[in-house]
Amino acid sequence: MVTSEYERRIAARFAGFDQDGNGYIDREDFMAAAKALLAEFGTAARSDKGQALYVGAEAFWQGMAGIADRDGDQRITREEFVNGAVKRLRDNPDRFAEIARPFLHAALAVAGGDAGAGGDAGVGVDDTARVLRVLGVDKEVAAQAAAQLDTDGDGRIDEEDIVSAFARYFTVPE
Ligand code: CA
Ligand code: CA
Hints:
The chain is an all-alpha fold.
């Protein structure tokens, strides 16, 4: 069987969302991602940042389900992911950014950025790479992406740049 580069990338994106690897994306995967981020950064689930992350994860899941879960069984299969999420979000990356933003905002606050406090000081390059890695982005890709986002080389990245990069990574696989 010949697997194209495009198919390989789609599979990698799907695997990134399917955190527990059971073959479909559902609410549990988003909760698992939140839990993994809290563990990675040693943040308590009951803290304000922890709660905000779970709220963001739920919103992210609801947004993805609204776009991709065509049969409404609360699961996004690989077929639904490819034909629903990837195609529709590729046509409209802003929509994906909108869906993912509350979760990413909370995740970056957990990672130690000032985003959670409403500041715009940005997030550290290394912390950004750690967040991307926990979210299923390939280790080298994560490090490279984070470094590239720090355009002025001061070691900090704007939250908005991270949201756009995340949207690009998951929606423009070709
Ligand atoms: Ca899953
Ligand atoms: Ca479904």
